[in-house]
Design goal:
The chain is mostly beta strands and 509 residues long. It is built from two helices and 44 strands. Among the domains are: 4-51 and 407-508, Galactose-binding domain-like (Jelly Rolls, Sandwich), CATH 2.60.120.260; 272-393, Kelch-type beta propeller (Neuraminidase, 6 Propeller), CATH 2.120.10. The strands form twelve sheets. A five-stranded antiparallel beta sheet has the order 1-2-44-37-41, with no helix packed on it. A five-stranded antiparallel beta sheet has the order 5-36-42-39-40, with no helix packed on it.
């Protein structure tokens, strides 16, 4: 596709659609991509502001919600949603049904515990068959490297009355797992502080039993452990079920575990790097996204390799290297969401979104995320700046009708038409805006190697299809770029459809 058309005395510049960030070249090669794209969305090739989140503000004075877990109760027969939320904040655990109504209730502590030492938990849902219960009971297993593993059991009907939520410690033979994962009907644990090269697995179908097979039992019926030392100080950081296999991540390498019984387990080291930042791992069917110090990485089932780092290389330079352990990520509806700390921030204050279908990136500023949770219907996040705040990251402001009100910016790469000997000037910019709940003031700028010229265009609410508008700039240059912005704190929803066309006068030397 040609984006420039040179004629005798002028040039037509076509930006057919808006796509996202592409920072690997200062000179434009594909005008759908931007050098800067802040707080905007590009659904179906249009440009529009990011949508405002739906906010739930709970009263947790002075403490942030550091873990947000989904507890799906398949065997729940009561009213309302089968999805329950469990959160960790201020050394306590809380639960509630769904997210839109009611308040959180604190979960009890096990005997001898008055506060949890960590608020960052790994979790997995399982089911048990307690004695006297009329059916299976869903339980939530949680673990961290300071408190060890616990089991959260909701009320269920049994011969012995069990009317309340309970929290009990799980005896894991003295091992405290930083991460847990369900695989082949066992729970696996890793990231053990005093055994960094060890992985431990429970008995099958019994996540509370971590004892080896006894006399008269088959070995595959027992629990066990596996050591996989690398002799270089590396340690396991994460576990992820990946199709019919289990992946065990270290900081600098990945191990693939095959087999469903201890006698069948095989370990194979994968090529490439590892996962130093466990919170950034997100499984996407046949591949896994993650972040390393120098950018994004991808595991494709065979190896870990760099992933499209040049496309966001300028953006990645703003990440605060000393706070990268705060990063977190999820995959939701074919998009990889990565919260990052930028500048001098010690908490996540920005969000990178990679669209796996379009192959494009977008970037959002001043969005503070402590943790994220993707469910079937929504993407939840907890705030890294406001205690007790949980919000839904929404999409497509044009459909929701709610704009975030944040300033937006779209900046093209430099354009010179491949003719450095041509003087360019007399820039005419054609665009087609649509506005709901206006007015909206757009700021168009032409930046050259000499200066930047800016004009504001205010658009009222549009009632039918977008009406084309034109902005003209004078001056001459050898190269130029187009910048589109909106004024801060505008709540109206808008979009630019049909891309952008520019007519630029040219004069060869």
């Amino acid at each position: 596709m040609a984006y420039f058309t040179l004629k005798a005395y002028d040039a037509d510049v076509f930006l057919p659609a808006f796509a996202g960030l592409k920072q690997d070249s200062e000179i434009a090669s594909d005008l759908r991509y931007a050098m800067t794209a802040e707080n905007v969305e590009t659904p179906r090739g249009v440009l529009q502001p990011m949508a405002a989140p739906t906010v739930f503000d709970y009263s947790f004075t002075g403490v942030r919600i550091e873990t947000l877990a989904r507890f799906h109760r398949r065997w729940y027969t009561g009213t309302g949603s089968k999805d329950w939320m469990v959160i960790a904040a201020g050394g306590k655990l809380y639960y509630k049904q769904s997210m839109d109504t009611g308040s959180f209730t604190q979960l009890p502590f096990p005997t001898g515990v008055t506060a949890w030492q960590s608020n960052v938990w790994s979790f997995a849902t399982y089911e048990i068959n307690p004695a006297g219960s009329a059916s299976s009971v869903d339980v939530l297993l949680m673990s961290n490297s300071l408190d060890g593993m616990i089991i959260i059991t909701p009320p269920y009907t049994a011969t012995v009355n069990h009317p309340n939520w309970t929290v009990d410690k799980v005896d894991t033979n003295g091992k405290k797992f930083g991460v847990i994962e369900r695989y082949a009907e066992r729970i696996w644990g890793g990231a053990i502080p005093d055994d960094p090269d060890m992985l431990v697995y429970s008995r099958p179908y019994d996540p509370t039993n971590w004892t080896a097979a006894g006399e008269g039992e088959e070995p595959e019926d027992g629990a066990g452990d596996i050591n996989q030392p690398s002799w270089d100080g590396d340690s396991f950081t994460a576990l992820r079920a990946f199709g019919s296999q289990l992946l065990a991540f270290k900081k600098t390498r990945v191990w693939r575990i095959l087999g469903t019984d201890p006698g069948e387990y095989t370990f194979k080291e994968q090529y490439g790097g590892g996962a130093p930042y466990v919170g950034t791992i997100a499984v996407d069917t046949e591949r896994i996204f993650m972040a390393e110090t120098d950018g994004l990485s991808l595991y494709d089932g065979l190896s870990v390799s760099d992933f499209r780092r040049p496309m966001i290389e300028r953006l990645w330079k703003t990440v605060n290297r000393s706070a990268m352990d705060q990063m977190c990520a999820v995959l939701y509806k074919n998009k990889y969401y990565l919260a990052i700390p930028t500048g001098n921030s010690s908490v996540n204050n920005a969000l990178i979104v990679y669209d796996t279908e379009e192959g494009t990136f977008l970037y959002y500023t001043d969005i503070y995320i402590e943790s994220m949770l993707a469910t079937e219907d929504a993407l939840y996040a907890t705030s890294s700046s406001v205690p007790g705040k949980i919000f839904i990251i929404n999409f497509d402001s044009w459909e929701t009708g709610v704009c975030s009100g944040k300033p937006t910016k779209w900046e093209t790469p430099w354009m010179d038409f491949g003719r450095k000997s041509y003087a360019k000037g007399g820039y005419e910019v054609y665009f087609s805006p649509e506005v709901k709940g206006g007015p909206v003031t757009f700021r168009f700028s032409i930046q050259t190697e000499k200066k930047i010229k800016t004009k504001n265009v205010t658009v009222q609410t549009t009632t039918f299809k977008a009406k084309q508008k034109k902005v003209r700039f004078g001056g001459t240059s050898r190269k130029f770029k187009l910048i589109i912005e909106t004024i801060s704190q505008q709540d109206a929803v808008w979009r630019l459809t049909g891309g952008i066309q520019m007519v630029v006068e040219t004069d060869p030397d």
